[in-house]
Structure formats: structure tokens, C-alpha cells
Amino acid sequence: MFASLIRRCFQTNKKIEKLTSLFPNESRKITTHHLSIPNMQRIALHQNMKYLQRSSPFWIQTSSFYVSSQASKMKKVEEPEKRELDLIRYDFKELKNSPKPALYLGCGGLIPFVSAPLFMAITETYFPELAFAQIAYGATILSFLGGTRWGFSIPENSPAKPDWLNLGNSVVPSILAWIALLFHDNLTEAAIMIVMGLGIALHYDLNLLPGYPSWLRALRTVLTVVATFSLIASIIIKNTYPEKRLV
Questions:
Q1: Domain containing residue 162
Q2: Staple partner for 159: which of 131, 185, 189, 210, CB 3.0–4.6 Å?
Q3: pLDDT tens digits for 120-165?
Q4: Is residue 73 part of a domain?
Q5: Same structural domain for residues 51 and 121?
Q6: Distance of alpha carbon 34 from its chain centroid, rounded?
Q7: pTM, entire model
């Protein structure tokens, strides 16, 4: 019975569409009365429409699910936003979250770098012993930076694997530090070698190799910049003020 009602409903809809296509101007005036539908058919059509209205939420949900599934398949995978100037825009914001021991020890490690040129600038005298002590300390720091990268690569869950790239580049700062100490007779060249080593170590940590946490990247940058300008200040003082030995 229900199947016959559905067929009659669809036949009625087809008749309406056919008449609408034949008389487009009179489409608004076409009703079921013009089709001479018997009372039983109109009652059946009315009941069928009520059934379809009751079941409409199910069809709406089914159709929306189908559309959403198709849209999800067609949707392109969004690429992660390219972060430009990560160090300035993102990492420096995490500097305040640095662990207190790392922050205090890192800033305290700048004292040997800063104290030597500061003392020579105040006395307006270039002391080669202080300059060499600054360079020797810089060589020690370079070896320390290479060792931290080596130690960062050793753990099993570390993002930096113990391959030739990571372990090989970890040795480079120590080699540059050793070469700098060989120029003890020419402290300018030794200071330039230390500056180059600091720059290369920072470049490795920020760009080439798997990076450290954001707070450490920012802290490393600040410490490297201060140490570099301290060495440059010693070179300027050497070429500006008269030389005098402490002993």
C-alpha cells in the first residue's frame, strides 16, 4: 500500500514538472486541483507529505554527513604557517621562561668576557695579559659549546641523532679554539678566530642542526652577541690605547 502511494506521489510530481515546463508563465497557478486528482489520491498525497516531513531530519542529517565527508576529502591539507624571523618574533618571548640556574650561570659566564675590555677602557690602557685571558676563556667556551651539542646527540630519544653531521660539527668549535690559542703572539687574529667560532657554533644550533628549546636558543643568542662585542672591544682598545704589561 505504501509503495503504491509513493509511486502515485512521484507520478503526480512528474505531471506537475511537465506542465510547468509547457506553461512557464502559468506555473504558479498549477495546483493539484488542475490535475483532477481524486479525493483518495489527494488524501494519500497529503499523508505521504506528512511522512516525508517527519522523516526530513533524517534525510537532512544524512545529506549533510555525505556533503561534509566529501568536503573533507576534497579539502587540501593546510601547510603549517611559515615562521619568519623565528628568533626575534618567537624565541625571545620565551627568554623569560628560562630556568633560573641556566639564566644566572649563563649571565655569570659573561663576566670574564666583559670585565677585561671594561677594565682596559676605564684605565685607557691595553693590557695584553688581560686580552689573552679573555681569549683563553673564549676558547674554553667554544669547547664547552661543542661538548653540549655532542651530549645533546647521545640520548636515544634526542632529536639530534649521533651521526657524522651532529658529532662532526660538534668538534669544529674545539678545533677553532685550539687554533686561536696558537696565535698567542697575535691577539687580534686569536680574537677574530674566537669570534668566528662563536658565530659558527650559534649558526649550527639555530639553523643547521636540530634546535634546542626556544628559551635556550634565545639565551644562546644573547650570550654570543655579548661575548662577540666584548672581543671586538678588546681589538679596538688594542689599536687605540697604549700597551702596558701588568707585571
A1: 86-238
A2: 210
A3: 999 999 999 999 999 999 999 999 998 888 888 888 888 888 888 8
A4: no
A5: no
A6: 69
A7: 0.64
